[in-house]
Amino acid sequence: MIRLQDHFTFTLRSLTRTRFRTTMQLVAMAIGVLAVVLLTGIGEGGRRFVMAEFASLGNDVLVMLPGRKETTGGLPPLTGEGTRDITLEDAQSLMRISDVERIAPIVVGTSRLSISGLSRDSLVLGTTQDFFSIRDLAFSQGQAFTTREGSRSRSECILGATLRDELFGPKRALGQWINVADYRCRVTGVLTDSGTGFGFDMSNALILPVDNAMQIFNTEGLFRVMIQIENIDAVPAMTTAVEQQMKLRHDGQLDITIVTPDSLLSAFNNVLLIMTFAVAGIAAISLLVAGVLIMNMTLIGVAQRRAEIGLLKALGASSKEVRLLFITEATLLATSGAVLGMLIAEFILWGLRFKFPEVPFATPLWASVSAIGVSAIAGILFSWIPAQKAAKLPPVLALQAQAGK
Amino acid sequence: MTEAMKTGAIKVRGVHRRFQLGDQTVHALNDINLDITQGEYISVMGPSGSGKSTLLNMLGLLDVPDEGEYWLAGEDTVPMSEEARAGYRRDHIGFVFQSYHLVPRLSARENMELPMVLAGIPPAERRKRLAPVIQRLGLTERADHKPEQLSGGQRQRVAIGRAIIMQAPLLLADEPTGNLDTHSGADVVELLEELNAQGVTLMVVTHDMALGQRAKRRLRMVDGAIVSDDTFAISSSEEPAL
Ligand SMILES: Nc1ncnc2c1ncn2[C@@H]1O[C@H](COP(=O)(O)OP(=O)(O)O)[C@@H](O)[C@H]1O
Ligand SMILES: [Mg+2]
């Protein structure tokens, strides 16, 4: 019986002394795993990016829009065509419902901004102090509105990071006056660059107190009302409570729509589902390609070594020992190839995350596990089956394999 | 039987081997009967395709008869399991092939060491056994070369080293000089005969009349059957007295 140490010496020699064959098999194995890990990593990154966009809205925030639409499938109305406006008073009345923590009424429009000769069109958003807490917006300079509760709003405004740079460049923005159409406001704060949240690109927006914005756009109706609630579990109950309240105020007419985070997610569920399937499909195809690649390389390797199997048997190795030698070799090769491919893939993903920090490129565990599993199994199986066959042959036939070549 | 075990003698009874070639059956061994005692020097001659290699493979346990008995060291090897035959190949038989059959990635030394590795002999013991063999084969300077760096004669000497390293009592050589020039061929023959002189049973298949006639006992095969089996009292260059 061959000694354990000799077993490994023999295997290592056969790997290190036939460099070309070993390298080719290693590369086949590595490419297979690399393809799966990399492609699913990119696909999953995309999926998580979309998910994160929705999540940025917050789990505990309801959005009320004017107009009634049943949200059984399809997208909820993004532009409300309400029969009746949601007024500022309507929005403020919601604070009387217990469990409502904060509300933020919103009006949106575009307007021409100008400062000392410079002018450009910009997104203008009217809202209240609580909007910044609900959306988790932070300030790089200054602060939110200084208006005290109840009194008329001051002429103040807050700039998104990009807009600030475009309007003021290196100059100081805080305390400067800006013309918004025929209205003037003083800059009291600048937002940090928080990227794009769901809906609006805040870094390009100018934010005003809601009553001032309603004057500029000459409207009585709100675009949306964000309602933050204290208890996430109470979402269905709160939806009903808000609907009741609005029905009372609108003469028994239910003419608003409440969008919950769940309904929003489920509306986009189809999209997310397709992305998940796409990722799984990519993985499956890569695995298949990897498997075929590995099978080819391994089969060539074993065919070349049939004569050697015959020789080892002629020299007194039993079929069992010969099989064991080949399985050890195939296992060593398959696992190192798989690990190599995995390391390269993770390295590339790391580079991608570095280059595009906002997309969370990462391979799902199931993909890594099945990539390594499938290639290891393919590598071992496709070298084991022919080795098994060759080991079963009478040595003379296996030896003739070479003579025939 | 007890006697056979001691001498490592061979007894073959009614052995047949047939090959299927398309719809044709080739009768490669046709009723072979043979007794060989330890230490004999036997040559096997005959036309191409007459079954010489098949006979040698069968005696070397590389192939199994379809019919008949093959007694080696006191046991019939035909009903044995393949695993048991592997053990016999390792301990009782040394094989020398026409085309050497060396492992190309292993050095001369490692090729000769291979049977001992497969037998599980510890490295220290392996070195001890290798040293005199390498020296005797005149391979001291070439021991760490790969087969591709060796001449045909050197390769065949490595193969002989591998065949004798387990001190098998039976040495089978299938046209050992077939791929060699006259000079290295003579070298190899001299080496084999030296081993025979020390008590190893030697059986050589050859096309070469001169080589065949160096053996005391000469088998002649035609169409899978042994047609003559003559033993000559005087060996070497003497003509057989027919
Ligand atoms: N594995 C095999 N399959 C089919 N036919 C074979 C096989 N081995 C040998 N033969 C046939 O058996 C016969 C004897 O072959 P062999 O013993 O190699 O002859 P020799 O060595 O005397 O030239 C030949 O006809 C050969 O074709
Ligand atoms: Mg032959």
Automatic annotation (TrEMBL), chain A:
Keywords assigned by UniProt, alphabetized: Cell membrane, Membrane, Transmembrane, Transmembrane helix
ABC3 transporter permease C-terminal domain location: 282-395
Transmembrane segments: 20-42, 271-303, 324-345, 365-385
GO cellular component: plasma membrane
Main location group: membrane
Domain of life, per lineage: Bacteria
A UniProt-annotated Pfam family: FtsX
MacB-like periplasmic core domain location: 26-244
Compartment annotation: Cell membrane
Its membrane topology: Multi-pass membrane protein
GO molecular function: transmembrane transporter activity
Membership in a protein family: Belongs to the ABC-4 integral membrane protein family.
Protein name as it appears in the record: Putative ABC transport system permease protein
Organism from which the protein derives: Thalassolituus maritimus
From TrEMBL, chain B:
Entry-linked InterPro entries: AAA+_ATPase, ABC_transporter-like_ATP-bd, ABC_transporter-like_CS, ABC_transpr_LolD-like, MacB-like_ATP-bd, P-loop_NTPase
An annotated GO cellular component: transmembrane transporter complex
Pfam families xrefs: ABC_tran
Coiled-coil ranges per UniProt: none
GO molecular function: ATP binding; ATP hydrolysis activity; transmembrane transporter activity
The entry's keywords: ATP-binding, Nucleotide-binding, Transport
Signal peptide: none
Domain ABC transporter positions: 10-242
SMART domains (alphabetical): AAA (SM00382)
Similarity annotation: Belongs to the ABC transporter superfamily. Macrolide exporter (TC 3.A.1.122) family.
Protein name (database record): Putative ABC transport system ATP-binding protein
Species name: Thalassolituus maritimus
